[in-house]
Amino acid sequence: MIYFSHRGANTLRVQNTAAAFALAHAQGARYFELDVHLLKDGALAVHHDYSLLSTAGADVKLKDLTAADLRKYPLKNPFTQEPAYVPLFVQVLPVLVPELELLNIELKNDGNIYPGLEETVLRAVPEKLLPKILFSSFDYPTLQRLRTLAPQVRIGQLTRAFNVQEALNIHAQSVHLNYIRFTPQIAQECHANGLNVYCYTVNDCALARRLEREGVDGIFTDDVTQFTP
Q1: Contact 40, 66 (CB under 8 A)
Q2: What does the chain look like in DSSP terms, one character per residue?
Q3: Which residue ranges make up each domain of the chain?
Q4: I need a surface site. Which of 104, 112, 154, 170 has the fewest CB within 10 A?
Q5: Cα–Cα distance between 136 and 117 in angstroms, integer?
Q6: Is 172 exposed, middle or buried (0-12, 13-18, 19+ CB in 10 A)?
Q7: pLDDT more than 90, % of the chain
Q8: Using 50, 70 and 90 to split pLDDT, how confident is the model at 227?
Q9: What is the pLDDT of residues 81-126, one digit of tens each?
């Protein structure tokens, strides 16, 4: 079983910020997950939602902002007195590289809201680091485009409706789904076809142990300290 730090140590720092990932790394995490969006100026931002409403109280879309605009919208920070902002991918990546085992980059691209996102993300990852990158997305056409652009990269199909043939059609390495949708039969079908199964978001040790017994290969968690020595 592997444990992905889901958006960094987000129970102690603002999620998807460099500070959250730095703390998770200090806590022993070597597997990470983050979300990327394409800004108006072509920069990649690390953030979960498409807007800043829930994180900064501003009803603005990331697609309408530039990298410089991000400094206009401080994120809500209940943890420290330090100001927090949506970071760029180029600011977060160096925090994760030391001793990195695997980084899951989720491409937020429902309905191809960010044309060209796939090419931009591929350019942003150094070629020597690609073997340690796992790309995922809920948007299946995004994964199809990614596979066409980069036959060699690792892809995880993020899905709400498991279909093993869809994963095989894009030569995925893994299937990612909410643990409430997981069944042992899904694990059996995935493993029979050479696919790993990763479940989100698991913050309970007993649940993690049960999922492992039922065939889950990894989980996404908000608190890696529960699972690291």
Answers
A1: yes
A2: -EEEEETSSTTTS-TTSHHHHHHHHHTT--EEEEEEEE-TTS-EEE-SSSEEHHHHSEEEEGGG--TGGGGGSPPP-SS-SS---PPBHHHHHHHH-TT--EEEEEE--GGGSSTTHHHHHHHHS-GGGGGGEEEEES-HHHHHHHHHH-TTSEEEEE-SS--HHHHHHTT-SEEEEEGGG--HHHHHHHHHTT-EEEEE----HHHHHHHHHTT--EEEES-GGGT--
A3: 34-196
A4: 112
A5: 13
A6: buried
A7: 99
A8: confident
A9: 999 999 999 999 999 999 999 999 999 999 999 999 999 999 999 9
Degrees, nearest 5: CA angle 106-109-111: 145
Tokens of residue 220, six digits: 């996404």
Compute the Cα dihedral for 16, 206, 160, 140 and give only its sign. positive
User: Rounded to an integer, what distance in angstroms lies between the CA atom of residue 3 and that of residue 199?
Assistant: 10
Residue that has been written with the tokens 């919208």 in this structure: 73
Q: Is the overall model pTM greater than 0.85, yes or no?
A: yes
For helices 89-96 and 18-26, angle between their N-to-C axes, nearest 10 degrees: 10
At a CB cut-off of 8 Å and minimum separation 6, what does 133 contact? 102, 103, 105, 125, 153, 154
The tokens 């809920």 sit on which residue?
Answer: 138
Is residue 25 a contact partner of residue 95, using CB atoms and an 8 Å limit? yes
Please write the tens of the pLDDT for every residue from 8-53. Answer: 999 999 999 999 999 999 999 999 999 999 999 999 999 999 999 9
Q: Give the CATH number of domain 34-196; options: 3.40.50.1820, 3.40.50.2000, 3.20.20.190, 3.40.50.720.
A: 3.20.20.190
